[in-house]
Design a protein that fits this description.
This protein is an alpha/beta fold. The protein has two domains: 1-50, no CATH class; 51-125, NAD(P)-binding Rossmann-like Domain (Rossmann fold, 3-Layer(aba) Sandwich), CATH 3.40.50. Helix content is 39%, strand content 12%. The chain is built from six helices and five strands. The strands form two sheets. A three-stranded parallel sheet has the order 3-4-5. A two-stranded parallel ribbon has the order 1-2. Helix 2 links the parallel strand 1 and strand 2 (35-37). Helix 4 (62-71) runs parallel beside helix 5 (86-99). The longest helix is centred in the middle third of the chain and has 14 residues, at 86-99. The N and C termini lie far apart (43 Å).
Length: 152
């Protein structure tokens, strides 16, 4: 995602790439004049200026990857879903607190290819229109115990 931002001229700096394969990391790193790594341990051990990392791996690897990075003093943005269970999410929060690091979940859909295609089509269409939405939750006065999720 970040290399796509850079291609689009967005302000986004990268100094290192770590992907599922070193060949893939190497290809991306060459394109953006940065350094590829074969493991989180290698990245942490040899690249001390990293301030933040995006954890975009399969969800089952979010906890170990984010834990290693935060324990090394690196803030993390973990792609959604954050964890495979509430217990893992709680552990990620505990690691962020104990290491005094920022642990954040990514919810950005701006660069999702499906969203981009839909927005582009919408702006080019005379037919597609968004229906008006006045309210999608109950009024404040009706929230709380026994509140309904829609108006009668």
């Amino acid at each position: 995602m970040y290399h796509e931002l850079a291609k689009d001229g967005e302000a986004c700096g990268s100094s290192a790439w770590l992907t599922a394969t070193l060949a893939c990391a190497d290809a991306i790193a060459r394109e953006f004049a940065s350094q590829p790594f074969g493991s989180i341990e290698q990245l942490i051990g040899t690249h001390g200026e990293i301030q933040a990392a995006s954890v975009a791996v399969p969800t089952v690897h979010h906890l170990p990857a984010a834990r290693a990075l935060m324990n090394a003093g690196i803030d993390v943005l973990v792609e959604k879903p954050l964890a495979t269970s509430l217990a893992e999410a709680d552990e990620l929060i505990a690691v962020a607190k104990s290491s005094s690091r920022i642990g954040q979940t990514g919810h950005l859909e701006r660069f999702n290819p499906a969203v981009r295609a839909t927005v582009s089509t919408y702006h080019q269409s005379d037919v597609l229109r968004s229906p008006p939405v006045e309210r999608v939750h109950p009024p404040v006065s009706r929230r709380g115990r026994g509140a309904r999720s829609h108006d009668p």
